Amino acid sequence: MFQKSKAFSGFSANDMPAAKEFYGGTLGLDVAETNGMLELHPGGGGVVMIYPKPNHTPATFTVLNFPVDDVERAVDELTAKGVQFEHYKGEYATDEKGIFRGEGPLIAWFQDPAGNILSVIQA
What we know:
Elements: E1 9-13, H1 16-26, E2 30-34, E3 37-41, E4 48-52, E5 62-68, H2 71-80, E6 99-100, E7 107-111, E8 117-122
Parallel strand pairs: 1-4, 5-8
Antiparallel strand pairs: 2-3, 3-4, 6-7, 7-8
């Protein structure tokens, strides 16, 4: 039934103008507005929907991952644009830049204006 469906992901935000500026301006994604929602076009033919929700509660997990060739460079470029990376301790401890260098690929987490957790991950 879903083999040919063009599925997409979505999550909420409580301030659509701030989300549009962040995703379009700061992250440089193609962003379209449709019926009060944002459509992100991150490349590769995928679409991510962001819908308004006044009583939005940020997810406590990563809702969107951006594969990159070089996490170090991506973190430096985003930091220069004002993005603040999360710093975790314990099992997923990150370094001073916010990069997790444990088992698996390099990854760094950050939040959008609504508090949703995003990442850059080395592909």
